[in-house]
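To assess whether ligand presence alters the predicted conformation, the chain was also submitted together with zinc ion. Input:
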Amino acid sequence: MNDSTRHPEGEPWQWSEETWRRIVGRARAGRSLKPKAWPEGARCAVAISFDADHETIPLRDGDESPMRISQGQYGNRQATPPPPARRQQAAIPPPFFNPAVAALLHPHAGRGGAGDGHEIGIHSWIHEVNTTLPREAERDLTFRAADTLAKIAGRNPVGMRTASWDFSVNTLDIVRELKLLYDSSLMADDEPYELMDAGVPTGIVELPPEWIRDDAAYFNFLRFSSLRPYTPPSAVEEIFTAEFDGAWEEGGLFLLTMHPHITGHRSRLPLLARLIRHMKARGKCWFATHAQVAQWCKDNA
Ligand SMILES: [Zn+2]
């Protein structure tokens, strides 16, 4: 730890109890919002979403490589919205979380998605890394992102997923100021819960994601680094199916995060279709947007 990153209260082993309690008290999980029952007599809720990052990942990195930009463009050009045959297999309108810059690059997709019943959620300005930003910069970018999506989608977003789930020490204040219904970035539970701010309930619903239920964790690839996992789609399907089966057995929430530029490929998208077939075969699944799940939990927990 150098001088610029040194904690003002010294090394962690020197911290007072007040310091470490204050740190863990930020955006803390409060009461469970797992409802007593799901709508339509369902046994579990299924919330599948796509983070439509497209070109913003290389842009965020300041990488002007046409090759990396083209990988992002694939997400919009080939995989958003899914071609009709693929959409039929899925047969649900998943939410899209859009960085505002991606929405501005592809406004027809955002407008069309909103018109087709997809929820449009906040997902940063340019996929910035919140924990590296001053408070005012994060606030300004998030407000501009919300405003941009509202103009494109024709309605105000009610939920947010921080880019890379990089929820900073300032993010909760911004979520509260925006009066959002929910956030989907934090991972303290399998089931929805209420966010606490320094021990005080906020009324904000947290819909917990997890890297386990994120396609990027298994399929991401960088040419000039050692990031080349290339997990076979069949192994990812096995993990996602086990996560869903657990949620179904417990009567809980199955929340899955996908990316058009990652899962839209011919070898991967069929795993999502097979997964949805498996869910429908088990039955009694409530397929819903994140906003619908958050509102139901808030009203029925
Ligand atoms: Zn993203």
